[in-house]
Structure formats: structure tokens, C-alpha cells
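Deliverable D2.4 — example input (C-alpha cells):
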């Protein structure tokens, strides 16, 4: 008997329908064709044990399984469930009349229980697009898949529940989630708040400007000055995620297998802080089984690089193109995939190898050559792509001992959201521009053109600091954001002066 069961393969951020054709005839062999990888080939042993431990006999027939389309490589263990159901249906152990209505996916344990899979959300989206009545997934993935409306999503614990459901001897409960209510209830759940940060008002101001315009930021200061502490609080002042942004972000994390079993839509902007030993592939994505990298997991959020000079130079250089294009194209011999990576890049670093150059109380033991070599680990082109460069100095005892809390994240966020609304209205007709950091040259000339006095100030700064053309554009973008925070229509000289002041590392006498 020939039956067809339906599953899906995940490529990039999208799912591709896979038809699993199972034919049972006289004989005893098992054939699996259709370009399966080793994990899929090994499914035979898992399926046999799972079926037998669930109270059924594995068919004593010749089983031929074809996974179509045959030219698409099938990877992972998510095909275990549809393969097992197909084998039982072909041997007439279960009814096959309902198989065409559902898409199935799940990894089988030897006792018949189901293990979670990656990419349940894009599979659910594809199931709805293809017109399936429902989707059957492991219980751990059900909330993630149930985000998709107009699709019946069933979470199951073991294969026996699926068999009983298809034989109409038992029913499954449809999982329904009020996506909007669940999403908006969790939008303000932050672990860290800027109210905990004492002093450092000029740094908090720079972070506010960066958040308001979506600008990249680097903080330079000695150990213990609060760089990492403040970086962790940046998501709490960024504008709330929209439903569209949340769905896109959740899809990336679903494909990477980073979602918890009790989570549905991601409600707060992601904060990713990879260690400085990270490889190029782990940062950008790819691999033999392509997965999103850290820059894509930080999409619509923050990518934090602590101790930036300690990162491999080759790893840092691959950031240059994603920072400009906000998408990463990964091309290999067997595949070509694009992942979105529109993130706010935040970095921190010590001013020298010992960490105490320009420290108010501790002496630096580094020679000028060592300091220069340390700073040169970060290339000029990468620094050009960082809009704000801010120096941090340690707090005095009096500042540390203050009991009064600082300004809360909620208060700062209100100002950031107000500035972002101005930018949304400004770029309402621009498809690829959503904030000031994304302005192109034409938009800079239109919206960020200073007056004659401002141009003269900018010319003087360009000559004195020997800034590049890219740095010129970034100063104007930052000045536009500062003006938006003040509600000013035009860029004024004090906006430009503040923006120029955020180019610390461009100064030849920095730290003196």
C-alpha cells in the first residue's frame, strides 16, 4: 500500500514542504531515498524501537520511503514522526484518510516520546500557506507554533497520541494563544534598569542618543568603570518591538533552536554578547548545516562585543559589510542563504593592555608603542562604522556612595520613543530607512544639512581630526538624532558640537 505523509525542511528562515511517500510490499528490507543525511538515515532504528515500545509491531514488510523533492537535502531528526506514521499507515496499522490534512514533525525517542525540533515557527507558517488544516508538533514546540493563527496546532507527548488521533480513538487539544495579549503583557519585563547606574551622566546621554537613532556605540574606559553594566541595560530603553519585528526575530531564534518550551513570541529586544573567542562562522552564520549566527540572533536588538580588541581581527572585519547592509549573504558550494541582521552594535574596550591609561588615580605601565598597537587592533574602517565613541572614567567614592537612584529606564525610554516617532514619520515613504542610523547620502542632504555656521564648524573638525567621508556622514546622522531628541526641525551648532564630541578615538591626542 502506498501512502503520503507531509513534513517540512527548514532552509534559511523559510520552510519547504516535504512529501514522504511510503510503500509497503512483500519482502523484509527497508529503503530510504530522497537525499537524507546521516541523522535521517539513522531514524530507522529510532522508529523501530519507538513503535515497538508504544505497543505496536513494526511491519514485517519491505518498506520503501521516498522523501520528495528528491534533490533537496533532508537534514536533522524532525522527520522521525512523519516517517513512523507513514510506515504504520502503509502497513494498514492506522487509517490513512486524515494524513493529507496535517503536517507532522518531531524527533522520536526510543520509548516513543517526542523531542523538540528546530524551526517549528517557519514550519507552522508554511503549513498555513499550503492550506493544511493542522500541524502536529512535539509538546515543547507547541506554543512557538501556535503563534500562527488560522491553523490548528496540536502538541503531543508521544507517538501513541498521534496514532490514536489519526484512528479517531482519542482526540487532541488544539493549542490557542492570544498572541497580542501575551505579547504586550511581556513587553516591559526587564531584568536591568538604568536607575541602578550611579553617576556617568555623560555616558548615559551618549547611550540615549545611540538608542534614539539606532546608532552603533563604543565605550572606552578602565576595568570596573561600568561599561558592561550599562550595555546590559540598553534594551530597556530601546523602543518596544512591533508585532512584525517580533515575528521576524522569533523566526530566527526558532530556526536556531534558541526558544524555551514555554515561550511564544519574543517580546523584548534580544541582547547577544558573544565571547571574544568566537569564530567567523559562529558570528555570521553558516556551517555544514546552516544556522543563523550571533549577528542574526541580535536582529532588531543589540550585539555587544565586550573587550573588542581581544576579538580576532578576521572576525571583526566580517562585521563591516553586515553593519552597512543589515543583511548577511552566506554562499557555500551546497547552499546560498540570506539572514537579516539589523542590530545596534555596542562595544567596549580598555584604553590600553593594562587598562589604566588616562586613569585618574592608577598609573599606566604601558609604553606609547604598546598603547598604539592595542588600539590598532581595531581597524579604521570598522571604527568609521561606529557612530559614537565615548570615554568612561571611574566614579569617585562620593559618587559611588550616593543612595539616590539614577534616572529610570522608563523615563529615558519615553524620550527615545518620542524621537523614534519623529523618524518614523520622516521616513514613512522610505522602504529601507526606519531610523537616522540608516539614512543614505541623499537623505542626509535632505534632512541633516547644517547651516553655514555649522558647516564651518564641521569643516574645522574634519581638518583637525582628519576624519573620513564616512565619519562626516555619521556625525550628521548623530546630530540629526540629537536634534530629534530636542524636537528641533533643523540641526543647530550645539547639536553638531555634541556629535563631534562623540568621536573620541579619532583624536590624535586622545587621552591627553
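Example output (designed residues):
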Amino acid at each position: 500500500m502506498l501512502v503520503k505523509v507531509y513534513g517540512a525542511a527548514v532552509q534559511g528562515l523559510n520552510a519547504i514542504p516535504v512529501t514522504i511517500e511510503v510503500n509497503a510490499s512483500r519482502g523484509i528490507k527497508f529503503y530510504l531515498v530522497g537525499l537524507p543525511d546521516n541523522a535521517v538515515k539513522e531514524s530507522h532504528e529510532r522508529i523501530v524501537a519507538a513503535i515497538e515500545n508504544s505497543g505496536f509491531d513494526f511491519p514485517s514488510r519491505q518498506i520503501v520511503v521516498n522523501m520528495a523533492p528528491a534533490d533537496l537535502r533532508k537534514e536533522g531528526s524532525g522527520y522521525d514522526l512523519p516517517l513512523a506514521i507513514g510506515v504504520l499507515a502503509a502497513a494498514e496499522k492506522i487509517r490513512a484518510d486524515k494524513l493529507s490534512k496535517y503536517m507532522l514533525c518531531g524527533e522520536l525517542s526510543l520509548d516513543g516520546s517526542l523531542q523538540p525540533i528546530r524551526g517549528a515557527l517557519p514550519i507552522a507558517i508554511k503549513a498555513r500557506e499550503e492550506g493544511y488544516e493542522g500541524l502536529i508538533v512535539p509538546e515543547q514546540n507547541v506554543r512557538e507554533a501556535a503563534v500562527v493563527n488560522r491553523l490548528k496546532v496540536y502538541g503531543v507527548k508521544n507517538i501513541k497520541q498521534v496514532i490514536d488521533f489519526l484512528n479517531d480513538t482519542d482526540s487532541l487539544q488544539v493549542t490557542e494563544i492570544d498572541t497580542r495579549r501575551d505579547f504586550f503583557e511581556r513587553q516591559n519585563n526587564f531584568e536591568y534598569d538604568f536607575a541602578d547606574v550611579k553617576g556617568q551622566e555623560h555616558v548615559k546621554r551618549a547611550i540615549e542618543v545611540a538608542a534614539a537613532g539606532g546608532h552603533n556605540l563604543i565605550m572606552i574606559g578602565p576595568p570596573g568603570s561600568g561599561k558592561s553594566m550599562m550595555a546590559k541595560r540598553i534594551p530597556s530603553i530601546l523602543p518596544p518591538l512591533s508585532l512584525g519585528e517580533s515575528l521576524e526575530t522569533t523566526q530566527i531564534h526558532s530556526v536556531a533552536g534558541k526558544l524555551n518550551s514555554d515561550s511564544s513570541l519574543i517580546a523584548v529586544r534580544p541582547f547577544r554578547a558573544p565571547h571574544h573567542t568566537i569564530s567567523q562562522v559562529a558570528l555570521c552564520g553558516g556551517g555544514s548545516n546552516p544556522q543563523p549566527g550571533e549577528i542574526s540572533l541580535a536582529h532588531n536588538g543589540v550585539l555587544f562585543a565586550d573587550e573588542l580588541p581581544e576579538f580576532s581581527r578576521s572576525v571583526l572585519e566580517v562585521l563591516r559589510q553586515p553593519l552597512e547592509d543589515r543583511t548577511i549573504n552566506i554562499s557555500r558550494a551546497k547552499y546560498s542563504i540570506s539572514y537579516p541582521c539589523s542590530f545596534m552594535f555596542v562595544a567596549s574596550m580598555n584604553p590600553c593592555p593594562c587598562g589604566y591609561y588616562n586613569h585618574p588615580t592608577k598609573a599606566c605601565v604601558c609604553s606609547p608603542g604598546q598603547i598604539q598597537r592595542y588600539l590598532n587592533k581595531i581597524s579604521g574602517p570598522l571604527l568609521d562604522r561606529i557612530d559614537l565613541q565615548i570615554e568612561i572614567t571611574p566614579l569617585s567614592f562620593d559618587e559611588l556612595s550616593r543612595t539616590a537612584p539614577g534616572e529610570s529606564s522608563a523615563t529615558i525610554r519615553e524620550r527615545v520613543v518620542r524621537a523614534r516617532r519623529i523618524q518614523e514619520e520622516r521616513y514613512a515613504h522610505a522602504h529601507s530607512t526606519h531610523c537616522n542610523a540608516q539614512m543614505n547620502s541623499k537623505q542626509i542632504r535632505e534632512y541633516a544639512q547644517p547651516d553655514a555656521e555649522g558647516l564651518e564648524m564641521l569643516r574645522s573638525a574634519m581638518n583637525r581630526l582628519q576624519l573620513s567621508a564616512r565619519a562626516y556622514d555619521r556625525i550628521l546622522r548623530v546630530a540629526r538624532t540629537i536634534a530629534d531628541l530636542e524636537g528641533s526641525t533643523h540641526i543647530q551648532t550645539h547639536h553638531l558640537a555634541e556629535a563631534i564630541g562623540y568621536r573620541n578615538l579619532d583624536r590624535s591626542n586622545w587621552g591627553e
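Residues 454 and 493 are 5 Å apart (CA to CA).
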